[in-house]
Every structure is written in C-alpha cells, then in structure tokens.
C-alpha cells in the first residue's frame, strides 16, 4: 500500500483484545474537514475509507476525498475516483481466460524486453473451479461421482493450465473442482468482512472489498463485503495493481418493513425486489437496504437478495454489518479474533447498523415484505415476476408469443370442469389441452408446457438453508402422500458447498430428495450457467420434431433465452421447494397454487398446501442440523482437492509452454505486433454493419456459455481439429481458446439479427447473402472493412462475460451504437478498445431507418474526450447520407487512456515493462 498523505488525519489505532490495528477513521476525518460524512450510506463509507487509505496525491487526491462529502449535497456525483479492492475472486469460465491473458502478457513482456516476473497479481486472487461440471448423470446415487469423473476427462487441459498458474503466479490460489461455487465459498470461508494486512511493522485493518469475474459476486454484500462483478479484463487490471476508475455512484435506499408470512421464501422476496428495482431503474447505481424489516431477515436471506443485484441492474445490493453478520461469522466457524475485530472496527467506523439510522440516499423506495406472495419469474427474464396463482395463465400467454401466435391455449375443460392430460390416463394432474406427442420407447407423451428440467441449482438459493430444508420437507411430505416426479422431468441437486450436503443429511431430508430424483449431481453452477446436460435423446427428438415449447424450472437467477438448454424455450426461476413441486406437477400448465399436484394412495387429490412445511418446522430443523464444526471441517483444507486434482502434473516455468494441439488453451493474439508506443487512434471510415439488435441483448446472446452446435463455425472448427461431437464440451469451458470463442461470438441459437428478420442464430447479411456472423466478419477483415453494431436498450445485460467484448473486438468491430448499455459490458468494450456510443433519448436505429445495408463513418475518434457528442455519418443504400449525433460512452479519462493504448491490458503491460 502506498503511504497515505492523510490530509484529514484519519490514521488511528484500534485496540481489540490484546491486538492493535492501524485503521483510517471516518469519524476522525469528519472532525478534520469531511463534515457530515457520518450520514453517508454505509456502502459509500466503504468507498470513502478506501480513498482515505490510498490518498497519494496522484491516483487519489484530497479533492477526490472531499467529493465524497460534496456528494451529500447533491446525492449524486460526476466526480471520477480511483478505487482499489482488497482482493479478486474468479470462477473458472472467466478465470481461465484471465490466467491465459496473464500468461500471454508474460510472453509479450519478454518480447518487449521486460521482466515476466512483473506480470503477477498484486492483490490476493482466489479462483474457484465451479462452472465446468455438467448434469450428464442424474437421479442415481453415483451421479456426483460420474459427473466429476467426466468433468476431469473433459477439462483436463484446462485444469493442467490452472495448476500451472497456481504454481507460477504469486498471490494466486485455486479452489479445486467438486468443492462449491465461488459465491458460497466466498460467503462461508473466504470473506472476512474486515480484511487485514501486515506492512511496515503494522497490521492495517480495512473493509473487505473485492471485484469478481462473476456478476453474482454481489452475493457477499449480504455480509457487508462491498463487491461486484467485473469482466475478466477489468479484474486482470485490478489484480495487476491498477485502480478501478469509477464515478462516485448514486445510492438508492431500499427500505424494508414487516416480516415474511408463513410459507413465503426468500426467493419470493428477491423476485419481488428484482421486479421493483428494474422498474425503478438502478443500472450503474448502488442499492443499499435499510429499515426495520432487516431485523426479520437472516444473513442468508440478505445474501439471496444481494446475489441478484445483476438481475435488478445495480452495481451491488449492500447490507451493513449488524448482529446477524456477527452471528453468521460465528456459526460458520470464523476465527474468534476476526469476529471481535469485525464488531469493534464496524462500530468504530460508524459502519455497524443499530437499526435507527437514516442515511442520506440519492433516492428511496420501500417494500412491506409481509405483502410478498409466492412467485416465479420467466419465461426468459429474471425481472418478469409472476405470482404463483397466475403462473399457468401467464404461461399460456407466453406460449402464444413464443410460438409466434396462432395456437389456441384456452382451457378446454373435461366434464367435471378440469382439463386433464390427454393420453396419460387421468393422473389427477391438470394441464391445458395441448396435443401430446408420443415419445419413442416411453410410456408417456410430451406437450407444450411440460417441465423437462427441474433443477435445484447453486447460486441464489443454496447458501440459504431455509429454502433447501424447505425443499427437503416438501419432498418428504410428497413421498408420504405417494406422489412421484413425472417421468419426463430431469431432476438435479447441485449445492453451492459441501456443507449443504452435511446438513441435508443430518436433517434426514437428503434421502427424501434422493427418492424423488434430486440426488447430488455436483457442486457447481450446472443448470443456471447452461450446464444442464443433454435431455434424453428421444425426449429431445420429440420436442424438436414437433416444435414443442418445453420448460425448465430452476432455483437460479438466470433464465435468458438459449441459456439453460437448447431444447428448452421457456425457463422459470423458483425457490427450491417450488422446483420440487413443479417436478411433481410436470407442467407449467398446472396452476400449482390451486390445482392438485396428483393423487395420494387412496385417489384423493393432493394440493401444494398439503405438502408445504411451516416456517417453524423449517427453523427447528435448521437449528438441529447445522453446526460450526461442519464449516470448519469442510474448509480446513479447501485448496487440497480430491485425488483427481492431486494427480494432475504441473509443467512449465515462469512462462507457459503453449501446447500446439490444444483446443482448450491457446496464446491469444491481443499482443501481436505490440510496441512500447501505441499507434494513434484512427477515425472509422465506411464501416459495414455486422448486426442490428433489439432490446435486452444479453452477454449470453453475444457470447454463449452453453453447448456448441455441430454445424456452427465453432463446431466446424472443433471437428476439423478431430474433436468428436460428444467431446465438444461447452463454449464456457473453451474460453481459453480464442479460435473457438471468436467463432462463438453472436452464436447463441436464439439471437435474432434484425438484418435477417425471422431467423434465429448467429447469421448476418453480406452483399445480400446470408452468412454466419463469424464468416462474414472474416471476409470483411480480409477486405480491410471495419465493422459496427447497432442495438437497442440494455445492450450487454447479464453475466460479466469478458468474451462478449473480446470476441466483438477480434471480429473487427470498432464501435457499438446502442440506446443504452449495461454497466459491465460497456466497461468491457472499452477495456478491449471497442468504442461504445448511445443514441439521444427517443432515437434508435429504427427511427433513423437503418436496415444494415448502410456504410457508417465516425469522425473525430482521434480527438475523443469522455462523454463527448460525436457525429456518425450514415450513407444509405440509395446514396443519401444522414448525420446522427451520438454520445461517446467512454466515461472517464482513464478509460480514454485504455482505448488510446489499444485496450486495458496493453496499457497495464506497457506500464509494467516501463517501470
């Protein structure tokens, strides 16, 4: 840490027990010129402390710190600051390409005459391998073992590379496969709430902060750790010692009052919160939760809400330190000295929530949580909440839209007023009267709306015992009633940590889940990231042959089009207990809130209310099942790994010996021809349009994580390199190979390029001919033609996926012009040297009559300034021209410097070599 100038005399000591810590006191700074900062939101106090500690007169100035006090007057700021997180968290899908980039930077440093040792993380980096396990095997006692073995078989090259990185880089640790997901391992073990560092004979205490290469890094804000997702590009810069350039954010206060009613889950609550905040509009803002309702939520509930900050669009959803934080630290087996420090530090800094505070916020909104009702969200966006009582009717509406209209989805009741399955022998399960199609070799058919995937998956919910124990009790009660999961449903249970297995087994409900097919399938993201694994081939064939809209229900946070499974077109987020309920019902056409799920042994109807546990039952079982010792034992040797991990040979030294034949890891071309002096920026002349996109194009649309189609450019490439189709794995697992990922850019099976109306998939028009986007881009590159993309609102929503920007750059796209961008993707585009622009309010590519046949010229690029208005000259096919004024979304001087350097990695590398 650079020695702070300490303009506000904030440096103090704090004695806790027999230990003394140095810290930078906000109350002292308030006395010495930062008037009123005790009224700042808790999250901004963390930012303020960061500036006080790193004040050096250059990257952090006295004026930067004063701007935090000025924020109180306007409650917003255009002041740019440099922020330094304490650490970086990675998952393997984004971590592998980040380590690839570090390895490539070492090679480039050598070529530039520098020392490769300088390319090293400067802050602690933890990578958790959690995104690679797939649900190939399910519903059996050995599904976990089989899936892990297949994971190692598929990902051996990647894991060898990560083992090399673990030994080659300082400050870098890897949590092996089969341990848990990064967010839950972070919550249960890595996060400390207050971090410490020994330097110059002092132990400095400061808030635990981080950035992560997964957008759901925000989950840890539930325990007052300020963190958010960034792309791998920005994370690499942070771990190489570069500050994150950001504007002092607006902070929206979300007041919670009341208490959840019996039978309402934290998932129901968070889906309501997501809906409200999306309507409010909080992109690029902090959200901070306050009010008396916090007293009625557990830390695990808070983590559930914090987790879904990307879904409500905020940078983070912050909960301050309070009694629940302290209880959670104790119950998860944290060190006693650390627990004492957290409480003493938070109280000394005015960061401890007593319950009466009313911080100053930019804006506020309020929810009485007693009004929350059982809910799901879908069929393709997490903010589209549907009350459970309306789910069947809303699916009927969605089905018409998905099918393109024309199909009658109105109910045709039987003589007793109930619509039942056709060809199914009247099982007592209700369904809209959709035609059912026989499945070859099966005793059941399939119809529109059938749930073919029911997944209790890691990210949002499995850190929360209340919903997992609840799911187990629903399973137990269903079994007692004689209910079974429908035979076409693929069931899975993928907890976020091994501790979950311990307490489910101790509670006695794992056996009940097993009996319904919810056996352990892996500790990883699985279904939510698109690793749901294949459906039964005959079920898949029936779906595709008959154009059926099959459904999934998952307890995750992402349900974007084409993400969960290529055969599934409607995806719903739900609590784990509701996942079990929908597996029993087998169809989204069933109104599970009011209709029977099935019949008991005596033929009587069984309703959801008959098998739903009370809150008291759940709480009692949690108290008797979860112990500190479970956490201590599971995390005592967390980096060791199983016998598979330990058997991996580590090869290579300071630089990596790139294996020529690898289809997983290749040296990326970012630094080819790089010199110590960057080439001047050039104007964009006569660019072609590669794509026209509508609103809410996600990073998953731009760079999918899931399965690779055989006839797509990436599939063709793999087959040309003798990779069998069964070994394709996923785009996410191959992010260390730019050749695959370039071909996978804009290759989502559901993406719709409006240049080719009515066609789904990664295609465009070039000279009137329909082509794969990759093939067209390579043709343009050979011709020397630059490219631009036009898009609508919220371009780049979703995961913090750096390959959505890397792939865009490598295809030759120089600029993206959209109505608005999601925060992380805009930053990633800048980090790769791609220029982001936004239309003026009320304008769009449609309003300007753009069809994709135009040529686009952008002048003044050589003299760009942050947030400058720029003229875009569009030449239409008939030769007429039009000048459109757009806003350059390079927001800060640092970002402009990155673009001038060719990208953030080039900027960092030149600095490392020069110093």
Give a structural overview.
The chain folds into three domains: 87-371, Aconitase, domain 3 (2-Layer Sandwich); 375-404 and 446-626, 2-Layer Sandwich (Aconitase, domain 3), CATH 3.30.499.10; 669-914, Aconitase, domain 4. It is 34% helix and 17% strand. Strands 26-29-30-31-34-33-32 form a seven-stranded mixed beta barrel. Helix 4 packs across helix 31, helix 8 (266-280) crosses helix 9 and helix 16 (498-507) crosses helix 21. The radius of gyration is 27 Å and the shape is globular. It starts with 10 loop residues before the first strand and ends with a helix. Residues 405-432 have low confidence and may be disordered.
List its traits.
915 residues, alpha/beta, Aconitase, domain 3, Aconitase, domain 4, 3 domains, 5-stranded parallel β-sheet, 34 strands, EC 4.2.1.3, Aconitase/3IPM_dehydase_swvl, aconitate hydratase activity, 4Fe-4S, 2-methylisocitrate dehydratase activity
